[in-house]
Write a structure and sequence with these properties.
The chain is α/β, with parallel strands linked by helices. Helices cover about 35% and strands about 20% of the residues.
Length: about 525
């Protein structure tokens, strides 16, 4: 999910602030083979590698206090499963890495799950480091949603039914192409700061967050002798900003260059997501409204989708934006403009008129139509509106964050305990709103995150750096048009950035066909 999720950041981004409030508001059984397998089956005991006693991390560690003390020792399990018709043997290492301050005092235990192919050449085998966004979202979304060997699937007839979501083998796992390390940010998932009183200053901001991830990646790579492996960073939603910042921090602080970035539904520039204050941001969300309308009317088909989305993009940045930023039309001219916008978006004419042609995606009268409440994270998905008569929007739940998306948290806890043999009394923090509320979105003395200059610098300094970006047609939080606009305005390394769009929303991988298409495209990206 936003974690697939982009959650609110400051008063400067009021739209996203309201989004967060709505969601309460942004993915082998080792000990017993009698349990039904969720993903890959563990190797029988006779075939497992020595030693015969359970493998744990033997590195001496400090005595932790509080929540940090509730995390168990690392667990290492061995698995095999068929991917693309070929059986693959791999090892899962589930545990924590300890971050320390300049005096050597522990500041956090960083939870991670690493999947490595058995017998592969570590110098040539790529390794991808995954994180979600929020800020405040755990990595269970990407882990169980997109790339891990086990995936969470929702009922085909009702994709908003989180209560009946099921775990099972992921035929679209990225494991055949790359080793994978899923890392939870401090304060999310099972990554625990050792001192909550200082955690905000130490971790909850763009720069300290990137520093923490860069050190965690360096620790894992050094410990596992993977400093020479090809390296990729995979981020979703705010994870787009995080991936760019971590790549920068890795180079500056750890002397590690990355080979590529894989960004899923990324936030790249917060100013382009604040439609309350930026007419360009308002225009960039319009194509997602139009794509959602076409899909709901069964008019968006694979053969013509690219052309339809291109037309929507050029209308939004042409006639629509020029009217929006010019002197507001009045009389018949206003009526004609509002009618045109209503036709493109599928939103009621009276709503468009009231909003003066600039509909806010999170407004209740935009999200609530015909007794259904639509999610910002996929303009085609809705639930029965609990308040169809209209209410204060802050009380209107988002179907994704407050609804079916929550299934990733409980299912990850179950998966970790039964398949990875990692058991803890700590609840998995899928979405930590305290982290989100405390987040410092300032970059280099900038009021909000503005990552385009950093990305441009990375592409110039690293001539082999490649960027893969995936967006869903129906995402109203991080619209595909905003990504396209950013890519079109990067002069250096433009030919090394690939933009891929898919049927789906922010969590585009919840749709099985789209998850498979994403995996195929990532495979091509990772294949030299």
């Amino acid at each position: 999910m936003l974690g697939f999720s982009l959650l609110s950041h400051s008063a400067a981004c009021a739209t996203l602030t309201r989004t967060m409030r709505q969601g309460a508001l942004a993915f082998s059984v080792v000990l017993s083979l009698s349990a039904a397998p969720l993903g890959a089956r563990a190797e029988p005991a006779a075939q497992q590698k020595p030693p015969t006693k359970p493998e744990t991390n033997t590195t001496p560690s400090p005595v932790f206090q509080g929540a940090a003390a509730l995390l168990p020792e690392d667990s290492i399990t061995h698995h095999s499963a068929p991917f693309n018709g070929h059986k693959l043997a791999y090892t899962a290492h589930t545990g924590t890495l300890t971050l320390r301050d300049d005096a050597g005092k522990p500041t956090a235990r960083m939870f991670y799950v690493a999947y490595t192919q058995d017998g592969a050449n570590p110098a040539r085998r790529p390794v991808s480091f995954f994180f979600n966004g929020g800020p405040g979202a755990g990595t269970a979304y990407l882990h169980l949603g997109a790339a891990g060997p086990t995936a969470l699937s929702f009922p085909a007839g009702n994709p908003t039914d989180g209560a009946n979501a099921k775990l099972g083998p992921n035929p679209d796992s990225w494991l055949p192409q790359t080793d994978m390390v899923f890392i939870d940010a401090p304060g999310t998932g099972w990554s625990v700061p050792t001192d909550e009183k200082t955690a905000e200053k130490t971790f909850y901001g763009i720069k300290p967050d990137a520093k923490a991830f860069a050190k965690t990646i360096q620790l894992w790579a050094s410990t596992n002798k993977r400093l020479t492996s090809p390296r990729y960073l995979v981020g979703e939603s705010y994870g787009g900003i995080r991936a760019i910042e971590v790549a920068d921090a890795l180079a500056k602080q750890q002397n590690l260059m990355v080979n590529g970035l894989i960004l899923i539904s990324p936030a790249l520039d917060m100013s382009l997501l604040d439609s309350t204050a930026n007419p360009l941001a308002t225009a960039l969300v319009l194509p997602s409204f139009e794509a959602s309308r076409l899909a709901l009317q069964h008019k968006l088909v694979p053969e013509t989708a690219a052309h339809q989305l291109d037309e929507a993009y050029h209308y939004a940045l042409g006639p629509y934006l020029s009217t929006l930023v010019n002197t507001p039309p009045t009389g018949e001219a206003a009526k004609a403009f509002y009618t045109e916008v209503a036709d493109h978006t599928g939103l009621p004419l009276d709503v468009i008129s009231k909003e003066r042609g600039a509909p806010q995606a999170d407004a209740h009268d935009v999200r609530s139509r015909d007794g259904r409440l639509y999610t910002l994270y996929d303009g085609t998905l809705s639930i029965a509106d609990p308040y169809p008569e209209g209410i204060d929007n802050s009380d209107s739940p988002d179907p994704t964050l407050a609804g079916f998306g929550r299934a990733y948290g409980s299912n990850f806890e179950y998966y970790a305990a039964t398949e990875l043999n990692f058991k803890t009394d700590l609840s998995y923090k899928l979405l930590n709103m305290k982290v989100n509320a405390a987040w410092d979105f300032r970059g280099n003395d900038e009021p909000v995150a503005h990552q385009i200059p950093t990305l441009r610098r990375l592409l110039a300094l690293n001539p082999t750096l490649r960027v893969f970006i995936a967006n869903g047609y129906y995402d109203l939080v991080c619209p595909f048009a905003s990504t396209r606009w950013v890519v079109e305005h990067i002069p250096v390394g433009h030919n090394r950035i690939g933009l891929h769009t898919y049927p789906g929303g922010h969590m585009l991988y919840t749709r099985p066909d789209t998850r498979a298409a994403l995996a195929r495209d990532v495979q091509a990206f990772l294949t030299p």
